[in-house]
Write a structure and sequence with these properties.
It contains 49 helices and 23 strands. By secondary structure, the chain is α+β, with helices and mostly antiparallel strands. It is globular and about 105 Å long.
Length: about 1350
């Protein structure tokens, strides 16, 4: 890694941050995707490219990329200017390449505000209809400009329905109109996001108004107290969401009429369908949709007359028709499109929240949006769970065809990447909808006679299967049963690697893993011909019956050898089938090779492409799914290569020294050139030998039966060496990196798992990592974080298993019971432990409401009794007449019922008898003791970790912020969405305690923290194939190289080109775009272009919040950096606003005690001090000190900066006693890690002496008498009256002198920062775990030194 040090100057202060960026090249691919960049034969070449500068390549962004120079006969052609007109009016003017297809014009017209409702039209060129699927060069005729006219066609039923659907979408959702306006702006601008920079940038007055409103609603106390009630105030996306549906309402409803479909005679007359519209004025109209447009007919709700009304006009657009009949509709529709879009296109870009999984809270506004909507009802009734009946898609053919597209030039590669991203995203959406349909029982299984857990489904051309919910081990049940979750995870990981490598003639299936309501559904594209034929006929490689019959095809074997070379596994293993025949395969026979009906070669079940982890080898099949990750294999090979290379270099240096002693100077030069070439050749040969030596046998310690050879013992030793490498090398380095926390933000379960996987460690080693953290007291914060991860993952496994067995009606009850058990007090746990029917705790509110209803009914009954008593006196007179009438009626009834119709009456009674079935649902119970015992068992069995404390004594039970962090991680891991309200705040806890005491006195029932209405939704989670653009990686690497060379402008141009490429492929909202914006912001900040820095950092912040959500470490870091940039341009209020948000997010996702919140508090203290709010600055320092002690201990080096800052702050307010105390504590910690002769200790001692001298001077000043005519020191004369004016003049001269001294101090600070960076590169004696603390220490020392020099100069003058 290369560390880049950036210094921010804030008047008299300087804050230094270390940004760690990975070196360009293959290492970046390895860290992001886990792909072995150039395995074995190409590994040395990548390593050599890392060491030597690459040759100059053509600058990216040019019209002809670098790989077209060697191609012969290829002509890209000039761009063609295309003008689209309608009725002699220009609609669109754009440029296309000669290879573009004309149908792309329809996509542009569909994104325009003028033509987005057009669904039935064609293009004409020179008054002749053109083919929409032809290339533009077929009509350009060597012209630089062509004019294409749009001509409308009569409607058919499909086009008319599409037109109505678009009208419904734009009327119901104002964001659609905002997106169309944004697209309209894009059509006239070359730069997609830069065009709105003027609207995005605000004046200083507007920013101050916003910040003042924010400061009045969200203060520092709100950021420190983790309270979900402040969550909507922090979110920036809610404020910039634009128009709402309530603001712009065009009509009451528009839906299809009940008279559909048209009768045969009207269908022959041209009627397509009928609509029913109710306008805002209250008028209701029935509309006939015909081939020529829309017209109001003479029908009503009871009478059908589809003939248009007299003098009715047939409009081609439905909007024009409703505008004619309703002035309110016309006015509201104009308002809908007259509003300017929100601050940026990013706020309106759609994002699939299921892919990013960034939602676990639902606001009250979202819950109240469900109003009466006829259009939504129609779409719900027509829902086919992702199936488009008009055109069924062949997912496998689309995926394979795109991978086979030519990629010779940049345009072809970009088109291929764009199509691949679209297909993958569409497949993920279809897989999610299909998985929900499978779980909901909408799809019938193909094998209904088998066990329910073995069901397989085919829906929407996707093959769905279930995964086993094994929670206590990593067992493999065999090929006859279903796969486990761990097997599916590793299978998808290998599919991603092969998708990235794109080996010729090798085909994998598009795969997605969907977790929904506790069930794991595996979605795969269907191999053509497999369903209709026998599996034995399709299988040409491997075995489908656990080695009984083994197939080996030479074509498949050659492809498999390339895969074995990529994964460094054995490519020649002999197997024996049940017929005693020997088969030589590359890899394990558990990998199946299938030839589809399209003659493509498919490989499935790829879990055995990775070696077994023999650290987990139990009897039976308990740990057969424990395999190593590909990142670990690559790290092991690099480690072995560096060892071998170091030994060879030692030998070469010894030989070179002997040769140089014997030869002359000329001979020495010739020998050096020859030796360099020999070294390169020898290194390559060593690498090839190493590749042949280290090949892992993936059949070891598995169920596969193979023939033992001479290399069997060597294969075992190699696996043992790899297993030992994990425990002795990788895990200790991982623990050290976790303790420093100088890398990417690691604060929750997801970030920890990503960091583990990037290091090559599986999550089953959590217990081993925690045990190594226990040996060091400075790493207890890492231990607390990892224990929270273990608890989160065990709860996820337990709840997922139970949710898969329950009915949907019981899932909210189970979730509520688990949360109430985990997050309740010990008294409540004991109450739940003794409760027989725990579901009764959710019925308390219902019983209370029923009691109130009963009381109201009793009051009404009393009033009725009083009224009846008053009426009795009047009814006594008529009692005799009533009795006579009753007798007559009874006689008449006896006459009618005495006939033979008794049987018919009884039949009618049985026919209309009410059926009330009794459902037997299992009662949901969660005992706290049983739940904790299960947690302890699974944590020990699955993660090798033992909880030494009880549930109530764990760290997360101490404060509300820790509870929110655990609650958030559990909800995100299971897809649970909760109502956004306060659950664990201090005030709510006190109120709950008082209520419980009152309830105990009154002997009332227990009130749960989580209620049934708090569980809003259970969302599906998905794992999928993420496609990366190689051209964007090339531009990023090119920009980083130019940046290291000091060519800033070229680096910015390369970054901007990369953004345009990514926007073209992924859209404006993507994680790579956000990271590039952050890099550009830092570059602009370094060169002093602050406006551009703020713009780019804002763009990055908006994208990160949109993708990852508000409560994410990446979003918090974006707000933090934006606040620092605001502070550099003196916008103090905006800086406070951003840092408050960052602090709130860190407290919510990490808990209070974490390094990130400490750094934010330290910067807030600097902000307050610059604003002359010294008391608030000291409060922030005290809070940072308290959190640092709770996080790292009382003797940690991280406390140096806090103590030094407190000493400086008290020195500024002339509280010298406290400054001396804190400085002594700082020195005592420094001496534990550094010697007395170290510069840091000497500087701290000098500061302490200065504090003591200042204290003595203050005591001496107290002895003197106050007075205006006090004589100056060394003079017998009193002070003159005009002395004050002279002092003011001297003060002006002093200010100039101070500014000069400050500039000198800043230059010294830059030099020392550079020296610190060079010492870190050269391996100085600065320990890495104390880098942040030393930077803060150094910062405060320089601040204090400048103040001391100023005071000394003032005294001298």
């Amino acid at each position: 890694t290369t560390q880049l040090t950036i210094v921010f100057f804030f008047n008299d202060t300087a804050t230094t941050e270390i940004y760690t960026e990975q070196i360009v090249g293959s290492v970046r691919c390895v860290q992001e995707t886990g792909i072995n960049a150039e395995y074995m034969g190409n590994l040395f070449q990548n390593w050599k490219d890392m060491q030597e500068p690459q040759k100059e390549q053509q600058q990216p962004g040019a019209e002809v990329p670098n790989d077209l120079e060697n191609q012969e006969g290829y002509d890209v052609g000039k761009p063609i200017k295309v003008i689209v007109k309608y009725q002699d009016k220009q609609l669109l003017e754009t440029e296309f390449s000669q290879q573009d297809v004309i149908i792309e014009l329809k996509q542009l017209l569909g994104e325009s505000t003028q033509s987005f409702l057009w669904t039935s039209y064609h293009f004409e060129y020179n008054q002749q209809r053109i083919n929409e699927y032809a290339e533009i060069k077929t009509y350009c005729e060597d012209k630089e400009e062509i004019i294409i006219n749009v001509v409308h066609d009569p409607y058919n039923e499909k086009n008319a329905r599409t037109h109505v659907k678009k009208v419904q979408e734009v009327i119901q959702d104002p964001s659609v109109a905002q997106q169309l306006i944004s697209n309209q702006l894009l059509l006239g601008q070359s730069n997609a996001l830069k065009g709105l920079q003027d609207e995005e940038s605000k004046t200083g007055e507007d920013a101050n108004k916003e910040s003042s409103q924010m400061s009045s609603t969200f203060q520092l106390s709100d950021a420190l107290n983790c309270d979900l009630s402040k969550y909507p105030l922090v979110s920036q996306e809610k404020k910039e969401s634009g128009l709402k549906r309530e603001d712009v309402r065009c009509l009451n409803y528009i839906c299809y009429s009940g008279f559909n479909p048209p009768p045969p005679n009207r269908k022959l007359a041209g009627d397509l369908f009928y609509l029913q519209v109710k306008l805002l004025e209250g008028n209701e109209y029935h509309i006939t949709a015909s081939s020529f447009g829309f017209a109001v007919n003479q029908s009503n709700s009871k009478y059908f007359d589809p003939i248009p009304q007299p003098k009715a006009i047939t409009y081609y657009s439905l909007v024009d028709l409703m505008s004619h009949y309703s002035s309110l509709f016309k006015k509201q529709y104009q308002i809908l499109f007259s509003q300017s879009p929100s601050l940026d296109l990013l706020t309106q870009s759609p994002v699939n929240t299921f892919i990013y999984n960034n939602k676990w809270l639902s606001s009250s506004e979202e819950l109240q949006q469900h109003d009466w909507n006829a259009t939504r009802t129609e779409s719900f009734l027509q829902n086919l769970h992702g199936v488009d009946p008009s055109s069924l898609r062949d997912w496998n053919d689309e995926y394979q065809s795109i991978k086979e597209l030519p990629k010779k030039d940049l345009i072809q590669r970009l088109n291929s990447d764009k199509l691949m991203v679209k297909v993958l995203n569409d497949f993920v959406e279809a897989a999610i909808e299909g998985a929900k349909a499978v779980v909901d029982g909408f799809v019938t299984p193909l094998n209904p006679t088998d066990k329910p857990e073995e069901y397989v489904y085919i829906y929407n051309s996707i093959f769905f299967s279930l995964a086993d919910n094994t929670i206590d081990s990593y067992r493999d049940s065999g090929a006859e049963t279903i796969a486990t979750r761990t097997m599916t995870n590793y299978d998808l990981l290998n599919v991603k690697i092969l998708h990235k490598r794109d080996i010729q003639e090798l085909h994998v299936l598009n795969t997605a893993l969907v977790d929904y309501a506790g069930r794991r559904i595996v979605a795969q594209a269907v191999v053509p011909g497999v369903i209709t034929s026998n599996q034995k006929q399709c299988t040409e490689y491997g075995s489908i019956d656990e080695g009984k019959n083994i197939y080996c095809n030479d074509e498949f074997k050659e492809i498999m050898k390339k895969v074995c070379q990529l994964f460094s596994i054995a490519d020649s293993i002999d197997f024996v089938d049940e017929k005693a025949e020997t088969h030589n395969l590359a890899g394990s026979y558990e990998i199946k090779g299938i030839r589809g009906s399209d003659r493509r070669k498919y490989f499935i079940e790829l879990i055995r492409l990775l070696p077994r982890d023999i650290n987990y080898t139990a009897e039976g099949h308990e740990h057969l799914c424990c395999i190593h990750r590909p990142e670990l294999v690559q790290k092991f090979l690099l480690y072995k290569f560096t060892e071998a290379e170091a030994i060879n270099q030692m030998k070469v240096q010894q030989e070179r020294a002997k040769q140089q002693k014997e030869g002359t100077e000329k001979e020495k030069e010739e020998q050096t050139e020859d030796t360099q070439q020999k070294e390169e050749e020898q290194a390559e040969s060593n690498m090839l030998k190493l590749a042949q030596k280290y090949k892992f046998n993936t059949c070891l310690y598995t169920k596969a039966q193979y023939v033992l050879t001479e290399s069997h013992e060597n294969d075992k030793k190699l696996l043992e060496e790899l297993a030992d490498f994990v425990k002795t090398k990788v895990i200790p380095s991982l623990v050290q990196e976790l303790s420093t926390n100088d890398i990417s933000p690691i604060c929750d379960s997801k970030s920890v798992s990503e960091f583990f996987h990037m290091s090559g460690i599986s999550m089953r080693y959590l217990g081993e990592v925690i045990r190594q953290c226990n040996s060091n007291k400075d790493q207890r914060h890492v231990k607390n974080l990892l224990e929270r991860v273990v608890l989160t993952r065990t709860l996820k496994n337990i709840m997922r298993k139970k949710m898969s067995e329950l009915n949907f009606m019981q899932i909210p009850k189970y979730i509520g019971l688990v949360f109430n058990t985990i997050f309740s007090s010990p008294e409540d746990k004991s109450y739940l432990e003794g409760l027989e029917n725990q579901e009764d705790i959710f019925k308390q509110k219902e019983t209370q409401s029923q009691q109130q209803k009963q009381q109201g009914q009793q009051a009404q009954q009393q009033q009725q009794k009083q009224e009846q008593e008053q009426e009795r006196e009047q009814d006594e007179v008529d009692q005799k007449d009533k009795s006579k009438k009753k007798k007559k009626k009874s006689k008449q009834n006896q006459k009618t019922t005495g006939t033979g119709d008794d049987v018919a009456l009884l039949a009618q009674q049985n026919l209309f008898k009410v059926i009330q079935p009794q459902f037997k649902l299992e009662t949901v119970t969660v005992k706290p003791s049983e739940l904790w015992n299960e947690i302890v068992h699974i944590a020990k069995k699955r993660y090798s970790h033992e909880f030494t404390e009880t549930l109530d004594k764990l760290v997360f039970q101490q404060k509300a912020s820790y509870k929110y962090a655990l609650l958030r991680e559990v909800c995100l891991s299971l897809g649970i969405v909760l109502k956004c309200r306060d659950y664990f705040s201090i005030h709510s806890a006190n109120e709950q305690g008082q209520q419980r005491r009152e309830k105990k006195k009154e002997e009332q029932a227990y009130s749960p923290v989580f209620r049934l209405e708090d569980i809003v939704e259970v969302r599906p989670l998905v794992k999928y194939i993420d496609h990366t653009c190689e051209d964007s990686l090339y531009h990023i690497d090119y920009a980083q190289k130019r940046l290291y060379e000091g060519k800033v402008n070229e680096a910015l141009e390369a970054y901007q080109t990369c953004i345009q490429i990514l926007i073209n492929i992924y859209g404006p909202a993507h994680k790579d775009i956000a990271s590039i914006y952050q890099k550009m912001a830092q570059i602009h900040l370094r060169i002093g272009n602050l406006e551009e820095a703020i713009f780019n950092q804002k763009q990055a912040t908006i994208i990160n919040e949109k993708l990852y959500g508000l409560d994410h470490a990446v979003t918090a870091q974006s707000y933090y950096k934006l606040g620092l940039i605001y502070f550099s341009i003196k916008e103090i209020d905006s800086a406070f606003k951003m840092l408050f948000k960052s602090l709130y997010i860190y407290n919510l996702i990490c808990g209070e005690n974490n390094l990130n919140s400490v750094i934010v508090l330290m910067n807030l203290s600097v902000f307050y001090r610059e604003s002359e709010q010294y008391q608030a600055s000291i409060s922030c320092l005290y809070e940072a000190l308290e959190r640092s002690i709770a996080t790292f201990g009382e003797e940690s080096a991280y406390l140096i900066g806090c103590y030094q800052g407190l000493a400086l702050a008290h020195y500024e307010i002339e509280d010298f006693n406290k400054s001396i105390d804190y400085q002594n504590k700082c020195i005592s910690i420094l001496k534990k890690y550094f010697s007395d002769e170290d510069i840091k200790v000497k500087d701290a001692t000098m500061l302490l002496n200065k504090f003591k001298s200042s204290l003595e001077d203050k005591k001496k000043q107290k002895l003197g008498k106050p007075g205006e005519n006090k004589r100056p020191f060394g003079s017998n004369k009193p002070q003159k009256p005009n002395q004050q004016k002279d002092d003011q003049e001297d003060a002006g001269q002093l200010s100039q002198f101070k500014n000069e001294q400050r500039q000198k101090e800043r230059q010294l600070l830059i030099q020392k920062a550079r020296a610190m960076r060079m010492s870190q590169k050269q391996g100085g004696n600065l320990r890495p775990q104390f880098q942040n603390a030393d930077i803060l220490n150094y910062m405060y020392q320089n601040q204090l030194l400048t103040r001391m020099k100023e005071t000394e100069e003032e005294k001298k003058e």
